[in-house]
Structures are given as C-alpha cells and as structure tokens.
Design goal:
Blueprint: E1 7-13, E2 18-26, E3 35-43, H1 45-49, H2 56-78, E4 87-93, H3 97-114, E5 118-122, H4 123-129, E6 141-146, E7 151-158, E8 161-167, H5 173-183, H6 190-198, H7 223-235, H8 241-270, E9 274-278, H9 285-298, E10 301-303, H10 307-310, H11 315-326
Parallel strand pairs: 1-4, 4-5, 6-9, 9-10
Antiparallel strand pairs: 1-2, 2-3, 6-7, 7-8
Helix pairs in contact: 2-3, 4-11, 5-6, 5-7, 5-8, 6-8, 7-8, 8-9
The chain binds 5'-O-[(R)-(carboxyoxy)(hydroxy)phosphoryl]adenosine (KG4) and zinc ion (ZN).
Length: 345
C-alpha cells in the first residue's frame, strides 16, 4: 500500500463563547509544520457584552445553531470534502461544561456517522501549539499561557511533555483585564478595550499592586489588583477621560510587569532554548513588546502567535491533534465526555 501523503484534520472548538472550526493538513511523518487550510470563527462577544461577561447557558445555546454552518465554512474555505477528512479533533476541556458538550457531541456524532476517528484535545495544550504555526521550536521550551481562565508557566521538554511550573493562585490575567475594564465602564470583552484606552494614559499614574513579584516562586496573583482598581475608581466623584486612561495604563502596566517578572525568573532557572507566549492576553501589544525584549535580553529564540491564533480558535486544536498524532501520543476515542476540569499533562 502506498504511504499516505498527508493527514487532514477537522478541528472543533467550543470551550467558551467562540464557536470555531478549522482544517489542518500536514505530513504524518516529516519535521515541517502543518498547514492551516482554514480557521473559521463565530464570536458571541456582542451577545455576552449585553450581560457584561460570558453567561454559560447562553454560550451553549448559541453554539448549537452555529456549529454545523461553521464546519461547512471551514471545509469549503479549505476546499476539502468531509469524506476526505482523516480525523476529527475537538476540545475536551477545560472550559464551560455546557459549551464543551456542544463541540464534543457534534464531533462524536460526526465521527460515528462518517466512521472517522475522534481525538479529544486539551484546550491549554492547544494554546501552546498555536506558537508552532510559523516558528521552529527548540526544546526545552518555556511557555507563558495567559487567557481569561488561566495564567501559567509551563516547561515543555518534548512534544506532549508538559510540566506546570507555576499558576495563578486566584484570578487569571485575562480576568484581571476584564474585571478592571468593567470597573472603568468598558464593554466586554474588556482586555482589548482596556489596552486601547491605555494608549492615552500614563502607566506611572497609579502604583497598583504586583503581589507575587518579589516571592521566590513562579505563582501569580491578580485579585488584589482588581480590588485596588475598584478603590481607585470609587475615590473619584467623576471619572474623566484622562483619569480613565491613566487607570487603564497603570492596570495594564501592573499586569504585564507581574507576568514578566515570573517569566524572567523561570528563564534564569530553567534556561529554555525557546520561550513562547499563548492565550488571549498574548494579543496584548505591551505584553508582546516586553516578551520580545526579554527574549532578546536573554538571547533566546521566541514565538508569539498572530493575534487571531492567541484568542480561542480551532486551528490551535487541529495543531495540537496533529503533533499528538505525529508523535504517536494520542488514541482516537469516540466515547469520551467533555471534562471542564481537564488538566494539562
Ligand atoms: O484564550 P482566550 O480567547 O479565552 C480563554 O480561554 O479564556 O482569552 C480571552 C482573554 C479575555 O480575558 C480577554 O479580555 C483577553 O483574553 N484579551 C486581551 C486582549 N485581547 C484579548 N487582554 C489584554 N489585551 C488584549 N489585547
Ligand atoms: Zn482559551
């Protein structure tokens, strides 16, 4: 039998409020990176903006009518027919249970009807693999994953080999952005809006807390920052545009400095060959700039995905599935359930 030339994966992501589908194609053996043939996404940000944050039941209900048209869109943009797909990959967790269930049930049903193997993928691992889109990664790699639900430093010694070095003890960095943005009256999702506002403000206007910065560990903490922003906001009778921009810039500065302090500590301790940034907060311009500066100071290679691969998307799910398949570190399973607490291992 002739060797199979390429591997085509249909990937599905529904862990939070983005419905996403993508098609990835790559060689089953070669060392090169796979190609992202399509990356389709339907954001529910406007709907959840009305509530000031993601409402799990609303998110799940909105995934249902969107998921099949998005899969069709991803296939047509990739010019691939459903029957040509070799595997279906889907986010198993972590995330919102009702949202995850929509993706998992869709993938399992498609797998059953089309007799295609289904691959359960960890969302956090997928955020890490978004860094593999363009760059060649040398191991050991150190990854800073910063999203709305997670803030963690991970050491990756090889494909599929992850060690969590430190995590947040309370709020995630994205949560700190979103909660502070809400206090400033900005619409959801607040991170990007807060960083836009920060452009007109001074990062030195307020000395907001950077709680774990001096501690000799790799843990993070952001709940104190939100409280400090709250007390600053209520101190003023009226929030002028200048004051709002200063609070935004000072908040962003405190978050980015806290992240960088631990990243630099981990670089010194573990001497990685590559550093990678992932998760929705990795779309933040100041964080990207400081991350590159740190890589250059330490003379190590770095990888930061394009913003569309930082925030939730299905291409990263396909990439994680592809590398697991290529390294024979996954078994197809058409019976698994969504797992909102799935851990990275
Ligand atoms: O990875 P992601 O899309 O979803 C989760 O898995 O959580 O991350 C979403 C988070 C939100 O908290 C959002 O406000 C934040 O990423 N975010 C940003 C920016 N763009 C998205 N935070 C700061 N600056 C940005 N430009
Ligand atoms: Zn995410």
């Amino acid at each position: 039998m002739a060797a199979k030339k390429s591997l085509k994966i249909l990937a599905i992501e529904t862990s939070c409020d983005e419905t996403a589908a993508a098609v990835i194609e790559g060689s089953p053996r070669s060392e090169g990176n796979p190609r992202i043939k399509s990356n389709a996404l339907a954001s529910q940000a406007k709907i959840h903006g009305l509530f000031g944050g993601v409402v799990p039941e609303v998110a799940a209900r909105n995934h249902v009518p969107a998921i099949i048209p998005l899969i069709e869109l991803a296939l047509s943009q990739a010019k691939v027919k459903l029957k040509e797909i070799d595997y279906i990959a889907v986010t198993q967790g972590p995330g919102l249970i009702t949202s995850l269930m929509v993706g998992v049930e869709t993938a399992r049903t498609l797998g059953l009807v089309l007799r295609k193997p289904v691959l359960p993928i960890n969302h956090l691992e997928a955020h890490i693999y978004a860094s593999f889109v363009e760059k060649k990664i040398r191991f050991p790699a150190l990854i800073l994953t910063v999203s709305g639900g997670h803030t963690m430093l991970v050491l990756m010694k090889a494909h599929g080999n992850f060690k969590i070095l430190g995590e947040t003890l309370d709020d995630a960095a994205g949560e700190a952005f979103d909660k502070s943005a809400r206090l400033l009256g900005l619409s959801y999702p607040g991170g990007a809006n807060l960083s836009k506002l920060a452009r007109n403000g001074s990062p030195l206007a307020f000395d907001f807390p950077r709680p774990m910065i001096k501690k000799d560990n790799l843990s993070f903490s952001f709940s104190g920052l939100k409280t400090a922003v709250f007390y600053e906001v209520i101190k003023h009778k009226k929030l002028t545009a200048k004051l709002k921009a200063d609070i935004a810039a000072s908040t962003q500065q405190a978050i980015v400095e806290s992240l960088l302090a631990k990243l630099n500590k981990a670089i010194k301790k573990f001497r990685p060959k590559t550093i990678m940034l992932g998760g929705g907060v990795a779309a933040n311009k100041l964080l990207r700039k400081e991350f590159v500066k740190s890589a250059k100071n330490h003379k190590i290679r770095y990888s930061i995905p394009k913003p569309e691969y930082c925030t939730d998307n299905a291409a990263m799910i396909g990439l994680a599935a592809y590398y697991r398949l290529r390294n024979k570190k996954i078994k197809a399973d058409n019976r698994f359930d969504a797992d909102p607490q799935l851990v990275l291992k």
